[in-house]
Amino acid sequence: MAQGHTITVEQVARHVRVVHGDQVLAESDRPLLLRETGCPERYYIPAEDVRLDLLTPSSTHTVCPFKGTASYWSLPDAPDLVWAYPDPKPDVARIKDHYCFYDTDVS
């Protein structure tokens, strides 16, 4: 990690429900909470708790020097709404097979 940059990943005992419009995209009692310097807290939800059938893979990929290369998925009205790190860096290996969501109501 860069000096002063930290990432923590922890299992949290919280029910998380992700809704976009009127669709429930994910619901989990076992999310991971990722905290990263300079970024908002994000919930990463296990693949088994995500409605992958509603999502379409995107051609978008981004690279984070701390987490690795992210792949994205879209809804018809929300491009690149969801991302995951298929092969995350060792420091955040726990987020493998977990999905994270932009611009959704997480409750």
UniProtKB/TrEMBL annotation:
<protein>
    <recommendedName>
        <fullName>DUF427 domain-containing protein</fullName>
    </recommendedName>
</protein>
<dbReference type="Pfam" id="PF04248">
    <property type="entry name" value="NTP_transf_9"/>
</dbReference>
<feature type="domain" description="DUF427">
    <location>
        <begin position="16"/>
        <end position="103"/>
    </location>
</feature>
<dbReference type="InterPro" id="IPR038694">
    <property type="entry name" value="DUF427_sf"/>
</dbReference>
<dbReference type="InterPro" id="IPR007361">
    <property type="entry name" value="DUF427"/>
</dbReference>
